[in-house]
Amino acid sequence: MTEKPPVRARRTTLADVAARAGVSVPLVSIVMRDAPGASAATRERVREAADELGYRPDSRARMLRRSRTQLIGVVFGVQHPFHGDLVSGLYTAADTAGYELALSAVTPGRNESRAVASLLQDRCEALVLLGPSLPTTELADLAARIPVMVVARPVRSKAVDVVRTDDAAGIQLAVDHLVELGHYRIAHIDGGRAPGAAERRRGYREALSRHGLDEVVILPGGLTEDEGAEAARHLLALSSRPTAVTVFNDRCATGVLDVLHRERFSVPGDMSVVGFDDSSLASLSHIALTTVAQDAERITTLAIARAIARLDGHDAPDEREQVIAPHLVVRSTTASPDIEPAAAPSRGVQTFST
Amino acid sequence: MTEKPPVRARRTTLADVAARAGVSVPLVSIVMRDAPGASAATRERVREAADELGYRPDSRARMLRRSRTQLIGVVFGVQHPFHGDLVSGLYTAADTAGYELALSAVTPGRNESRAVASLLQDRCEALVLLGPSLPTTELADLAARIPVMVVARPVRSKAVDVVRTDDAAGIQLAVDHLVELGHYRIAHIDGGRAPGAAERRRGYREALSRHGLDEVVILPGGLTEDEGAEAARHLLALSSRPTAVTVFNDRCATGVLDVLHRERFSVPGDMSVVGFDDSSLASLSHIALTTVAQDAERITTLAIARAIARLDGHDAPDEREQVIAPHLVVRSTTASPDIEPAAAPSRGVQTFST
DNA sequence: CAGAATCTCTAGAACGTTATAGCTCAGTGG
DNA sequence: CCACTGAGCTATAACGTTCTAGAGATTCTG
């Protein structure tokens, strides 16, 4: 019995610290929580003992004892770059409100139902779902058990709260910008069945009609670079070619840009391009995509605030769906259609190649 | 006292199920865990009661009572796309081994220390750190408390386990491929202080000398598209221009490609480019980057297996550092340098622009 | 100086689960 | 008829924390 392989010394607990400091267990708890009820001298002594033993509170036991777990569950897609921005924002919002976050990822081998189930086992008090693809009925069922915040997807059910960008207004900003520059043949590359795509399509139509333009050109696109590239080829094949295009998102727009470059079109000389998301892609200096920025910070702040309001019993029905205004970030892929770029070797090449 | 605002019905517990089924609490526990010690008839009855009440086990209480939490903590960067692949792999590996994962993200406002601290509070049994930037001493301190697996970064300390790709071998694969195609002026764009960069640099040097090539060209690069673009401009300005280049990672390589296209260079006609990571970027049809693929599935499987081995008390010192062989994915950005592409309008343009 | 208020601390119970030990009852073998 | 076995179930005690109630000491108040 000289060797005990997995000896794994028991974690130090409040009881260990209490014994070392010569006080009771609850008093140590009081000190560790900075709760009132201990003298300064004792606090000092207890803290010292805790440090010496390397004490770390056990959040499982803590949450078990408290009625409130102060835990908000987040379901996010591990592939989607914009979810990264949202998760960052959620962390800071939750932190300032004194809540913790429990992350549960959706991966190719782990669907949303599993992700949600694990968060329910962890006894989260509320759930934040980023761009969920669960059917509305399941979302409603879930919301019967626990407050549910859906981010970046419109949901018809009244059971769940929604925080999302005003997609229609975003595209309208883009069209306004293009019209102001002098464009009047403006196309839209679509996101298909993706969350928000229908709204953006609608915004495009409305903006055009508001400006008295009737040449509606909607091309099937998608969420990825490949789908954008495909759409761009169709765009260039049109008989009366538009001078500008609004694209469902930045990834898709990057695919469009790539095809334009390969086909020797100058951007923005021959074609202005506007994306959507203001993802890290867009701000890259060699892409410099003009794009519609979603206010991730505001979205996440509101989602957390609303979740906490629900937990506190404040149900404001008028805030069930919060639609956040986006803003336009103008970079280098948009310009007036009639101005010939001063030093644009590509312009000549385009003439050469057509 | 007619209204109780946050009434929030208490979760159903084992006791509720037990009362409904007319049995004791421990028996319900036995049934829910599929443990031996209950008759088939009783199991049926208990399960029925549990379903009716919508019972969900409380993982906090469960983990508190068990000595083992069966929980592995993962620290990952929310920005880094490759971490997404790794997280996916970790989920499936942990799942098949009967472990749960606790995710903790590193964001601009949440550093690695905080991410680790929160996992320690959750009483994870082991930690998996993806490409951590913590100093070696802190990693060693951490490893004194809990088994630590470092993924995708070489660490000198013997305290932590490491699972990583053989970066040097990866670049050597790339160089071998290029030499085979007939290249002999091959440059390398560097990753600076990034994890793995030093190894890749070394692999480049060794591969060149193995092939008897002495024209070592190492250009400062980085992890991002912008840094790749910058490096590409330096590359093109070289007096005796290389015909091929190996780049630190795919993002950086994308920046290189973009500058090459803008400057009217044909890829692979005028310049072959090889990336590293086989990220989703590389496989996009309009980029089609030849690249060195890291075996994410194998890396994650080994990391989980090793963590569990540690927990079971098996410490195999010879497996402290596991170096995984990468493989080359050949796409369309590499070709022989002397073959003029058949239909390459850009070739003429390049001549035109130089 | 009595009584009240305040401060500092402790005892004990509780959160929801599971491990351990023990109970009951049928069946079995001597 | 008794001891024994084993299956099926229950009582009790933990896990580590925090809440409630209250004890003892000190200070304040009139």
Automatic annotation (TrEMBL), chains A, B:
The keyword Membrane appears for this protein: no
Region (Disordered): 335-354
Segments crossing the lipid bilayer: none
Top-level taxonomic group: Bacteria
SUPFAM superfamilies to which the protein is assigned, alphabetical: lambda repressor-like DNA-binding domains (SSF47413), Periplasmic binding protein-like I (SSF53822)
Keyword line: DNA-binding, Transcription, Transcription regulation
Pfam family, one: Peripla_BP_3
Segments forming domain HTH lacI-type: 12-66
PROSITE patterns: HTH_LACI_2
Keyword Transit peptide attributed: no
Protein name: LacI family transcriptional regulator
Organism listed in the record: Pseudonocardia xinjiangensis
